[in-house]
Amino acid sequence: MAVCAYCGNKGDLTKEHVIPSWLYEATKNQNLQLIQAQPKKFINNQQTKKDVCETCNNIALSKLDNYVKNLHDEYFRNIVKNNESIVFNYNFDFLARWLLKVSFNSARANKGNYHVFSNLKKYMINGTDRPSKLTIMIQLITPQVLSKRERDLIPDENLRKLGVITPNTTRISRLDAATTSVDPQKFDIARMVMVNSYQFFIFLPSDKVQSDLEWDDLLNQFGTSEITSGVQKLMTTENSIKVSASKVKLVHTMEHHIMRNLKVYSQLINDRSPKETK
Ligand SMILES: [Zn+2]
Known about the structure:
The chain is of the alpha+beta class. The chain has helices spanning 21-26, 54-76, 92-109, 121-126, 148-152, 157-162, 177-180, 212-223, 250-260, 262-272; strands at 13-17, 33-35, 42-43, 48-53, 85-89, 135-140, 144-145, 164-165, 170-174, 187-195, 198-205, 232-233, 240-244.
């Protein structure tokens, strides 16, 4: 009999959405889901993984989904404006467990490295055994008003007329070592989950990290890169933080990913643009 990916119990398995269905519904008109592990594969349907038992799915995981659905209604559905500051109220464990859960789901569904989540299953399901160095950071991404030169470069006519690139996207991804100065040797988990303006980073050290001091240094170093301007750490002992909008735009956060998969993206843009008449 098959085994649940979360609790390990044998039994009938149910379909768990990689991204909760309410989030798909809320963001239906947005762009495609981008899968970093398989950059050639664009997904525009609701991706699921049938490897979760009914108890985990309908009790533990759906509790996390309900919590974040409320966060979505209160925060995530609003695009953060330039120069805006947000007072973000959170429950660290509920948010962290949800971010880990969608990352774990995505890694399983897309043949990523899901083994690194093995020691976190209890925490995701019960909220017990939170790893002491688990770190969550938040960053607010704002709309990018395009200059005339930038506008002229955009093949999509509607986007060109609009003149603004809005961060209305859902992304679940590993962090790229090349752009974020994250040394893969030192991190068991270095990932991001983005829902519209709200970008979250999730970190867990590997056993190569020798001390608290070294871990703090690694995190500080992450915060100094160009695309992490304005990131703030969510304290486990707090439940509220004031965050100012970052100067970082959606395009910057995706630049490296796009450049590395330029062929796929230009193909995608060509496929979606109206064909020129001769
Ligand atoms: Zn289970």
